[in-house]
Amino acid sequence: MADYIEPKLASGFKDYLPEDMIPRQEMFDRIRAVFENFGFVPLDTPGLEKDEIITGGDPDFKMNVWHASIKDDSEKMALRFDLTVPLARVVAGNPDIKKPFKRYQIGKVWRGERPQAGRYREFVQFDADIVGSTSVLADAEIIAIMNATMIALEIPNFLIRINNRKILNGLTEYAGFSPDKNSAVLRAIDKLDKQGWDKVSTELCDAKIGLTSEQAEAIKKFVDLRAHTPIETLDAVEALMIKSPTAMNGISELRELVDAIKAMGVPDEKWKIDLSIARGLGYYTGPVFETVLTDILEIGSVFSGGRYDGLVSKFSAQSVPATGASVGV
Amino acid sequence: MADYIEPKLASGFKDYLPEDMIPRQEMFDRIRAVFENFGFVPLDTPGLEKDEIITGGDPDFKMNVWHASIKDDSEKMALRFDLTVPLARVVAGNPDIKKPFKRYQIGKVWRGERPQAGRYREFVQFDADIVGSTSVLADAEIIAIMNATMIALEIPNFLIRINNRKILNGLTEYAGFSPDKNSAVLRAIDKLDKQGWDKVSTELCDAKIGLTSEQAEAIKKFVDLRAHTPIETLDAVEALMIKSPTAMNGISELRELVDAIKAMGVPDEKWKIDLSIARGLGYYTGPVFETVLTDILEIGSVFSGGRYDGLVSKFSAQSVPATGASVGV
Fold first, then answer.
1. Complex-level ipTM beyond the 0.90 threshold
2. Mean pLDDT in chain A?
3. Domain B8-134+309-329 belongs to what topology?
4. Nearest CB to A68: which of B18, B42, B79?
5. Any idea where the domains of chain B sit in the sequence?
6. A69 — phi, psi (to 5°)?
């Protein structure tokens, strides 16, 4: 029998030996250089915060959080699962920060993923956000930084998919179903890429969501529009959703965003409007974006984000608009 | 009443806003550049490991460790309190790593310090170690890297204090007290700088340790030797401890180390033999070193380490020698 402690990591955790860490460090440096070239300044916050900050009231935030405790201390603590919630806390707690506040943060985050190949319970996140601006120019700058980062990492084949949550929120008005079904409908649509329309349609009409086949058909018409060029898509979706004021608002924002992206010089072939993109987290309120590697679509999105105008108000009486994106490495 | 979550950090934790983080990041980059110039390669290990790895069997290691848990998972986990224990685990678990293995690691560590001014429960540690060499040249290289780091940080007034644990372990033979009192005696000596001799002497002779006044007097003679130049100190301590084979072994190692430090070009005024230096952690086995800022001695040591030839064998049947130092920032 061994009289020593087995030198094993827990499953879902990973060492980076020098042969992995040297290129990884080079990648980190390149991402940081892009963020700094765009004029973002560094922020650092603890890995560990009060449980009530990290998990908040939002059910989305309670997912698989690591709790932490120490002898003789009763305060409930948790490990951060992203860098956006801590940013919102910092902005709320430091109202004098000059805005727009363009900050980047690099740090480990922890999640209670079920251990499986390629999913880690700890990884490094690079996060760039602009806080204090409602302008779509801020959203466009985030998309430009996503594009520049992929170029700096010498990844030739990628596509940034863009949508607007307001258009998705307008689906209730457009297809005529009850607003309380909206998040379930969005979660179903979000699976389109991985599962195909037939499965999504079945989910939409099953007992749990319970759309009619006419409503599902209306949604199919909607998601099919993403096959077109940005301008065509915008014109078509405007025609389709003319009766939804919420969607029209999102479409108008998206038109402005398209102009801004073009003005910033992000090449046309590197981005696309994709009306099926919803993003998982509940805090997004406007434009949402995600980057996929077009050679290996199955790994999902690698650099994603969106506008979250309500998050700071979880921690403060004032509401502060914000937009940003992060890449997990 | 507020209907939002108070945006507060737990006590002992700190945000670094951009005005703090920009110079901090610059400092991080400089330290990393020094480590890389010395040919050290990066390693990364998780912040969170199995509890048995982090806390081990050693009572020194159980101090104030943060435990972590997640719903539906029974495995006991803990946050790392240093980067040396994870290094020992990596070396034991990857026996094929080419040695000597010169690695650096940068990462956050967590400790359950009682909250008080200037003591944080989370900080960033920079750690440089050489694994697989028993040579004092490896210890000298660690001292050279400590010197180069202080220069790179443009800190003019510092002093690296050097000792050898074997000399301290020889105190039982030299002063004639029981070996089971040795760690308590070392802990008392370690307080000399902060408390002065009178308090240390009282502690040595109190009921708990129980040395005789003759034994305490012998220890005073010993610690007083640190006032001299390195060569004088070595000659004097050799004359004093001639009857302790353990100490003679340490003195001989220290003579070799002094030659190696000089050969590496670390200026004479930047280091000193100080026989009172013990270092807190139990795992050190040979040379120990710590850097103090001579303008602000009260903050204690800022960059410290030593040789720990037994640590890897906690995790493996083989024993692997190692030496290193770390700076917490």
1. yes
2. 92
3. BirA Bifunctional Protein; domain 2 (3.30.930)
4. B79
5. 8-134+309-329
6. -150, 160
